[in-house]
Structures are given as structure tokens and as C-alpha cells.
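Hey team,

Filing this mostly as a record. A colleague (T.K.) asked me to run one chain through the structure pipeline before their review meeting, and I want the input and output archived in the tracker in case anyone asks later how it was produced. No errors, nothing strange. Just documentation.

Input sequence:
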Amino acid sequence: MRYVSRAVRVAAFVTLAVMFAFAGCSKGDYPEMARVTGTVAYKGKPVPNIMVNFMPTEGRPSWGKTDDAGKFEMIYDEDYKGVKMGRHKVYFTPAVFTIDGGASKASRKAIAAAAGLTPAELLDLRSKYGSESETKLVVEIKKDPEVLKLDLD
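Output structure:
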């Protein structure tokens, strides 16, 4: 009888160990996702220090911030880097804010300089791509990973 008890205990231990191992591998309630990286350029030159926003047709958005070379990596939440598979509207917002929100000429100049643009270029970029409702830029994420080159005019 002692031998059966030991076998049952070993089987129970192995079952629990396997259950705990698989519990850590779950993606939870995430949709089908893809890691997305890329670059942003405006009229051929990299755009540093700007927020890249991906808004899917349905579901929550993802965001990223360009570095000095205009490179970005998208973030879905604190646990997952990437975006939901499918169509996304892409828009850009300044990563730098001023106390007056860009109301003064000096403020607009500082925000533009942080993005490596002139105030006129920043105004042009924001008028074309500055919000979800204004942007015409749409990307389709079909594979994981996805590397994008976003050339803005």
C-alpha cells in the first residue's frame, strides 16, 4: 500500500508542476499581436522625439516614441511590446510639451526643435498626421515581427 501512496504523491506533484509551468506561459486576454518596430522620416530626414500612435479599427491603441535616429518600437501595455494584428490609423503627437501647450511662438519653436523640425514643418506634419481623425496614414499589420518605414511628406 505504501508504494501506491508514493506513486500517487509523485503523480500529483508532477501534475501540479506541469500546471504551474503552463500557467506562466499564457497570453491571457491579448488579441493576436505582432512586435512592430520601424523608422519615421519627414521629407527624407529622421524625426526624433515624437510619439507614434497606432489606433486599430477595434480595440485598444499602441504607442511608441522615436529616438534620435527616428527609430521606434510599439508598446501595447506594460507587459507586451507590439500592436494588435490588422488595420491601424497612424498618427503622430509631440513627445515634448511646454507649459502653455504650444500657444506661444517660443513654445512652438521648442516643440518643433525637439522633433528636429522647423515650426512650419511641425505645423504641416500635425495638420496631416496629428490626430486619429486627420491622418490618412493607414498600415496593415499582417506578420510578426513587422518592420515599418514611415516616410511622411
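Quick notes for T.K.: Residues 17 and 119 are 60 Å apart (CA to CA). Confidence is low (pLDDT under 50) at residues 20-26.
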